[in-house]
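Our preliminary data section would be incomplete without showing what the modeling component actually yields. Below, a chain of 404 amino acids is followed by its predicted structure, encoded as tokens that our downstream tools consume directly.
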Amino acid sequence: MEIKVPSVGESVFEALVGKWLRRNGEAVRKDEPVCEIETDKITMEIDAGADGVLTIMVPEGTTVKIGSVIGIIAEGATVAPAPAKPEAPKEVPPLSPAARKLAQEKGISPETVQGTGRGGRVTVDDLLKGEGKGAEKVEEKAPAQPPLFASGAPAVLPVPAPPQPKEPAAEAERVTRTPMTPIRRRIAERLLAARQQTAMLTTFNEADLGRVMELRKKYREHFQKKHGVSLGFMSFFVKACVEALKEYPAVNGSIEGDDIVSHHYYHVGIAIGAEKGLVVPVLRDADRLSFAEIEATIAGFADKIKANRLELSDLQGGTFTISNGGVYGSLLSTPILNPPQSGVLGMHAVQERPVVRDGQIVIRPMMYLALSYDHRIIDGREAVGFLKKVKEYVEEPEELFLEG
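Predicted structure:
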């Protein structure tokens, strides 16, 4: 049975063989993940189509066309016993270029020298010391007294040369070059396009999350028991953004050529940091989702990302994006647009800060909010108004979230 790179979308033509999860010649079982591939949009696993023995045909790090055969599973085959391993030759320690040259000139066997450099590397100084130890053994057999001239005066012995300084690490050893993965290349292209092809600006505000935190504390246990998911901040902000988008539809639009495209639906992308880069799965028709459905869908996306099961359809069609840098401790940042979208909301860490309420200085849980927007389609008045609405909704959430 052939293992082929599956088609993951009309616009994806090649994939990178990222990692083989099973070794060549190893027995595998049907539906067991055997290989991890990467495209410019997603990372996914390929499962074995049958029980048998795996033969790897394409090594890791190779880019292949969609549909290419990268391995074969011999159905019904068994793993042959491994032959006895021959005795391994004595390991030769790593040498710096200068040390290798000196060892050849002096006829010194590097494996007889104890390396003191990084990772056990044998340096020039180690070779000189090793040579010196051999000389000391010869001197032990010589008379203890230094030789004398005929006059009885002691002979002048040669002054030993000062020890040479340890050779610095070669320049090549201080730099590592790693090819960009398809996902990282795609991220780089899109970020550059966002900078070059949009008139991006950012406006800032801050929100008092006291009431949201009180609601979460009050209903957390009931919500968890009823729906099987935790009540987080993100569902509040998704709901707040949807309501604000209804009042400021330009933030939910996009530009195609000379046309402004107005979307009469709300597909909200949720930026999630993954091991191999940022991905933005989409909550479709977020205006129709309950708090529990929003939280459950986001949790499902996180599970898919961890298991490399995210599908291309999960990433397509977003009209607006929310990014929560606060989960990493960010206090304030400028989120970047996700083209062709025209707006992205940046959430940040909640921090207790002194603020003025009714003429009194009080300590409140505050969050900085940032809206980056494409000034070609969204005016400053609309951007500021949108962000103020989001602020108002999360500061007074009861009217929107009674269904909680």
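Residues 5 and 179 are 21 Å apart (CA to CA). The chain is about 25% helix and 25% strand. Preliminary results of this kind motivate Aim 1 of the renewal.
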